[in-house]
Specification:
single chain, 263 residues, alpha/beta, Rossmann fold, 2 domains, nine-stranded mixed β-sheet, 8 helices
Length: 263
């Protein structure tokens, strides 16, 4: 009888704990996703966009996505300096280290840092990714959690949450105790797996800022056909290389002659 009562009390306690944890959960957080090239960061972002669209949230992003009713950010440098998104919004920022790199801290506007400090009060959730944790130090300290992104076989993406806890170092003869961030991976049952090709059509993975082609010159004295064959070139490849080299040299000579005429 005693054990039944004890189990009932424990069950009620955990039931109330789960109920209030869900009821008063704060969804307005700043999550940082980092991983190397091709690890699935953009796929994870698109997956989260779809998830929050189904929940009725407003989506903002600076990514080139094909999903409907997405608000594309046009002024990335001043998006939090002079403006704020609508309430109940999720903002997805791609390669945030390019926009707010840690080495540009002298040019980092304090208004942006202030927005992130009041992010919860603006009722916005932010996802940002980069290839390294290279954003401004003021923003790094405001991240609520992190996710390490990797992949298996270039088509299965793995999201491993990283828990951030505030700790402190012990005082030594060289210094006082200090508050530090203690990082550790969440338990394996919190890992998420995604089939990356499912999201490839929803965004342009090769979208990059435009830059003019790099200037170049061509090889002056290329190897002969026989020399290329000795190096293991197939007949087709050797002929194609020599044909391409001669046409490039011809174009280069024409361009040089035109430049001389202009001068």
């Amino acid at each position: 009888m005693f054990f039944k009562i004890l189990l009932s009390i424990i069950g009620v306690f955990f039931g109330l704990y789960i109920f209030f944890s869900i009821k008063y959960n704060n969804p307005n957080k700043f999550i940082f996703i980092w991983g190397k090239k091709g690890s699935g960061k953009s796929c994870f972002m698109v997956h989260e966009m779809v998830r929050y669209m189904k929940k009725g949230w407003t989506i903002y992003t600076d990514m080139n996505v094909n999903l409907p009713n997405i608000r594309l950010i046009t002024d990335t440098n001043n998006m939090f300096k002079d403006y704020t998104p609508d309430k109940h919004s999720v903002i997805f920022l791609d390669e945030i280290g390019v926009t707010w790199h840690a080495r540009d801290f002298k040019q980092f506007d304090k208004k942006i840092r202030e927005w992130f400090k009041f992010q919860r009060k603006y009722k916005c959730r932010v996802y940002a990714n980069s290839q390294d944790f290279d954003i401004d130090k003021g923003l790094r300290s405001l991240t609520d959690s992190m996710i390490l992104q990797s992949n298996i076989g270039n088509f299965i993406s793995i999201s491993r949450p990283i828990i951030r806890k505030v700790g402190f170092t012990d005082a030594t003869f060289t210094g006082e105790s200090k508050l530090v961030d203690q990082l550790q991976f969440a338990p394996p049952w919190n890992y998420k797996f995604y089939f990356m090709p499912k999201y490839f059509n929803a965004f342009n993975s090769y979208d990059a800022p435009y830059r003019p082609p790099m200037p170049y010159d061509v090889t002056k004295n290329p190897l002969t056909y026989k020399q290329l064959r000795k190096l293991g070139f197939s007949r087709k490849l050797a002929k194609a290389c020599l044909s391409s080299s001669s046409s490039s040299a011809y174009s280069s000579n024409i361009q040089n002659a035109e430049d001389k005429m202009l001068t």
